[in-house]
Every structure is written in C-alpha cells, then in structure tokens.
Queue: 3 jobs
Job 1
Amino acid sequence: MKILVTGGAGFIGSHIADACIAAGHEVVVLDDLSRGDRRNLPPKARFYEIDACDPKVRDIFLSERPDILNHHAAQISVSDSVRDPMRDAQINVLGTINLLEAAVAAGTRKVIFASTGGAMYGEIEGAPAGEDSPRLPISPYAVSKISAEFYLGYYRRQHGLRYTALRYANVYGPRQSPHGEAGAVAIFSTAALSGKAPRLFAARQVGDSGGIRDYVYVGDVVRANTTALERGDDDVFNIATAAGTATADLYRQVATAVEFKDPPEFAPPRPGDLLRSVISYQKAERVLGWRPETSLQEGVRKTVEYFRETANVKRETSPTP
C-alpha cells in the first residue's frame, strides 16, 4: 500500500518511514524540515518539503492518492505551547484539519495519528492511566492533541475516514533531537558525551529528582504504528511501558552508559510540566497484540551508542583548521 508520513524526516516519523519501506510499502514523506533532517529521509521515499498547514498539501494528496496517512508532523514542546498557544493550535489543530480535508479529497482510507498519553491525562496518581481515564490537560499542547482526536471522530462519522490514534508516553531513541526542551535522553546523552553536565529540571523545587515519566523506546513505537495499518480501527491506544522513572534516575542511566561522572546542573521547574505521568498499555496488548519489548536500560544504551557514533562521524568529517 501507499503510506504518506507527515513529519517523516523527524525523529519518530523517519523510523516509521524506514519500517514501512522495509515491509514493502510505497512511502511518501511530507516535512517542512523545521525540526526534521534530510539525512533521516529514506532514499526510497518520495519527499515533499511543505508545511502541514499549507493549502497545497491537497494537491500532493490528489497526485499521490495515499491509502494511509500517518500523521506525525506536530509542535511537540509542552513549554513552547504554554509560551505560544496560538502557534501550537495553528500547527496541531489547523494543520491536522488541513491534512484530513486533503485525505478525504484523495480517497485515503485511514489515518494513524500520533497523539499524547504523556500530557493527555494530567497528573496521574496511583495506577497507570488507561484510555478511559479522565483527560485533564494542563498545557495547550495536550488540549491541541485532544482536539485533533475529536476531529478524527468527526471525519470518521462525516466522511467514513477510519483512524487509529496512538497516545504516546515519552518516546526516546536514536535520531531524537537534543536541541530544545523535549527529549531528555537525547539531551542528557549529547551533553554527557561532550563532557558537559546537562540541566535537570525540578518537579517542585531545585535539587529534587524531577518529574516521573513513562519512557517508551522508538522501536516499540514503530511496531505500534505498523500494527495499526491493519488493526485498531476507530479507536485510541496508549503506547507506553506502565513504568515510571524520575528524571534523576534517567540521568543516572544515561551517565552510566556514557561513563560520565559529573552531577547534573539543577534547574527550576518548567511551566506546563507534569509531576507524574505513567500510563497503561493493557488495551494495546489486548486489541493490537502490542506490548513494549525494550527495557529502559537497553533503550538508553542504544540511544547513547547512536549519539556516540554521530559525534564520531562529525569529528571525522570536520575540515582541518
């Protein structure tokens, strides 16, 4: 089948594009390269450099006629959404509507949508949150993702466009950007590998262990996406590990993998950050047959190795002064 991946030059989207091509599918990538990188693009994918909000997206859909829209293009920073809610809504809500309109016009059969579990349910105390848990967003980012899910339901009822929404926990792994405020594993890895102490943002006060998060490896997330090509129609699924890790413990995992001895630089809490977010994957296991397979230790090791190799390549290809 033909699969159009938005954000396919980015962190998660490029891994999905790779997997779809490896499975024998035809892949088209849309990405404006604001966060993505051309080096992540699979050579066999057709690439269009375009913003998801651009009206010309419709022309691409009508030309390509994809069977599946895999939508990963997004504004992904919680703190950026707090600083600029209008931009967050422009990209995550209006951009999604633009793509759904184009998909309907082109006769696309199904949408796989990258949603959020990490921000959807608000502060989570006790047992990991399930898909039926109350949605209590405390950031515009979470509100925009909830809104997009409602639009998926509308387009299913109004136009027959099937969908599967995957609510991710905190995804990490190779190709994640270490720039900005999202992606703790990537940020910690690159800082430690360069001999610099990374910042550890507090949960409540400077010097504490930071927030508790559910970290899921990108390879496991890719499996959920490829499974959703044929399963999970018109439903939502948490893609997570149901295990919570404090930021300080995550830092120790990375520091151990890098063999970095220095303590982190402690920083105050960030606006919009949750204290605790851990979500259940029981429904995904029951309906999709999906469960996480990569331990945090193994995932961190793979991620550190990727950034180590990337740093070595940069050193080898840098011009001699």
Note: The mean pLDDT is 94.
Job 2
Amino acid sequence: MAEKKINYNKITDFLFEIGTLRNMKRMHCQTLPQANDTIASHSFETAIIGMVLAKMEKADENKVLKMCLFHDIAEARTGDANFMHSHYTEMEEDKAIKDQLSSTPLEKEIIEILDEYIERKSIESIIAKDADLINQTLLQCDYLKESKDLARWNRHSMKLLKTKSAKTLAKTIIRKNPFDWFYNFSDATK
C-alpha cells in the first residue's frame, strides 16, 4: 500500500482558514451588544473547561479537548448561527467540515470525533457539550452581571447540563463575582 502524499498546500490553507475564527464575533452580540468574544476565543476557553470537566468525570481528556477545539470550525465557512438564526437557516456544517479537513492529516480522526460529539452518546461528547454551555454561562455572568435576565439565563442553562461536575461547577460560577480571582490575588499579595 502506497503512503499517501502530504498536501502541504491544503494544510496551509486549512491553518489560514482556522486563523480567521479569531476575527469572527459570535452572533450572540446581536442581543448582547457588549459581547466581544470570537469563535476562536470561545473554542479555546471551551477546551480548557472541557479538560477540567474530563478530569473531574474521569473521561478521556484528549478526546474531550479535540471535540472542544474543533466543535465550531465549520463556522469559518457557515458563520455562527445564534439560537434565533438556527430556526431559519440550513448551515450544512457536515459539508463544511468535510471540505475543510479533506486532504489533511486530521481528516479521518476529527470527522469521527465531531460525529461522536454531534451524537451525544459518549461521556466525552456529553462533557464537551457541557463545557460549551459552561463557557456561555461564564460569559453571561460577565455580560449580564447587572441584569435581571441573568437569573433567568442561569435557570435555563442549568437545565441543559448533564454531568454532575458541570452542574456543580455552574452553580459555583453563578454564585461568584467574575472579579473574585483578581481581588483574591490582590489581597494575597499585600
């Protein structure tokens, strides 16, 4: 069996395309004008949350990290559809992912991982989705900290979480001031 030739042009194009995610604001800015996060920053934060949850749930951290890092790559081609948009648009994310990853060394593995993520049957896919939701909870606590809508958002998001670790973490996040980490550091250095 002949070894498949590496297509460096395709890999380079893929990497440049993924880099565009740092320029793409998430579409919740339609209803949260103060939101300034991008798809790239969301994926990075979700991956860290996912790794923490995977450790807490004793799941495959490597798989969770990959699911979290790659779960929104299609949005480089499809854009980010918020909850409202998703009721009116056909995103064809599967097609976008297959086109993005074709002829790259990631193609088979990442497509399989993202298929597993979408099915939500494995503990890793459930954890990755919980991480995605917890990232949004952190953002809402920051963006809506002065709003009466925060409590309603938190009640809604808590219902969607599946793992015990994610539910406990979300409850802790909701009770905390987003600046406690800074105040605690400042107090400890005096």
Note: The first helix runs from residue 8 to 19.
Job 3
Amino acid sequence: MSGLLELLLAPLAYSFMQRSLLACLIVGVICSVMGCYVVLRGMAFMGDALAHAILPGVAIAYVLKGDMLVGALGAAIIAALVIGAFSRHGQVKEDTAIGIVFAAALALGIALMSTIKNYSIDLTHVLFGNVLGVSENDLILTGGLAAFVLLVVVLLYKEFLVVSFDPVLAATLRLPITHLRNLMLVLLALTVVVSLQTVGVGLVAAMLVTPAATASLLTKRLPSMMVVAAVIGAVSSLTGLYLSYYVNVASGAAVVLVCTLCFVLAYLLAPGRGLLWGSIRGLRTTRAGAGETHP
C-alpha cells in the first residue's frame, strides 16, 4: 500500500507535474461534457475540424510572437461561426460546411507554417500536445475557459437540449435557434483550445468523442451521461499522465489510449448492453428454444 502511495505522490514533488495533473483534470472533464453533445448529435467530424482550424491562428500568433493559445482561440471561434453561417439557411449541409472550412483552415495553416523556418521544432507540441510544459498563465487561461464553458452548459442546459434534439419544439417555443447553435459551436471551439496543450490537435477529437461514447454505453439519460463521461475523462487523463511519467511515452497519446481502453471495456462489459451480455442472452435464447423443441 505504501509503495502505491509513493508512486502516486512521487510526481507531485515537481511543480510542473502539479500543473500538468490539474490541466489534465480540467481537459478530461470539459472535453467529456461537451463531447456528449458531439456524440449524440453526430458531430464527431466537427471536433476534428475545429482542432485543425486552429492552425492558422497558432501560426499567426507565432510569427507575431504573441500567445499561441490566444491565436488558437481566435481561429477556432472564427471557424465555428463560419461553419454556422454556411449551414444556417440549409443551402449547404452542416457536414459539407465543416468539410469546406476544415480543408481551407488546414491548408491556410500549412501555408503559414511552411513560411516559418523552424516550425517543425517549435510547433510540434501544437500537433501532439505538451502538457508537461503548461505554465501558470496557461493553466489560468485553461481553467477560466473551462469554467466559462461549464457555466454556460449548466445555465442553458434545457435550451441546448431542445435545440439539439427537437428543433420543431424549439421553434414552437420561439427559442433563438441560430444563436444557440452558434453558441454551442463557440463552446466546442473553446473546448478544443482548452485541450490544445494536453493532447494536441491530432488527438483532441478522441478526447471529445471517446469518454462520451463510453458513457453512452453505461447510461440512458443526458445528465447522467455527462457525469459519467466527466469521471471517465478525468480518470483517464490522470492515469494517462502517470503512465507517461513512468513509462516515458507521449502524454497525449497515453491519455487517449487509456480512454480507448475504457471504451473497449464498456463495449464488452456494459451491464445489459455490452457485447458479452448480448452473447449471454443469445446463448440463453438458443438453449431455451432447443429445450422447447426437444422436451
């Protein structure tokens, strides 16, 4: 027992690990909560698109020697609003608008990054995350954005629920559907930016989708799904960071792999819904049918 406690406390002797653990906890919770909307609305591609849409903002901030998180935030919000504008009147489907903005932002980001001579070294952490390099200012910005997102989700929970799953009722209630959808896209953009340093552009979509998908196998109602997803995301993030510390692997990849393991376990073992339970029910049905046929 003392050995396990020592393993848990040893990394906390370093201030950078303390900041990293807190950042992982924040990202695990906020991605999982917003990921529930992403999964239930079939918007997994949106998370990936916004993750790549931040590249132009990061590149511009780097060239201007500004804060790359602020550049990423601006680019993500602009991309989210442009997607909302393209798909607002129904002339262009949302997935088509996402594909157009995704491709354009990615191309612009690559074009800008190619003008930076040493971009492959200095911007690598944008692609793969660098949670061990989180500074106090980064942590404050990350925590502030995450708190804002969670506050808005709590305050507008009923409105988001109606707009997401019953647009006809939303129109009947005269809810500002366009504004609420755009606000949800902005919150998703903020979530992507919050996750930037922890898992990077390449893996942020996994953090949005995997914990929420796991929770969807374990629960049936959205509030409980959000809570379970947040717990899974937080535990997976902390576990992944400890693995990266002791096994010496990339922290973002370790976090996502732990999340994926949780999903596989839920897919197989979820009570009443897992693959194993389905196999057991099928076997019992087969045996019962055989018993009736051959008394």
Note: The chain has one domain: 2-289.
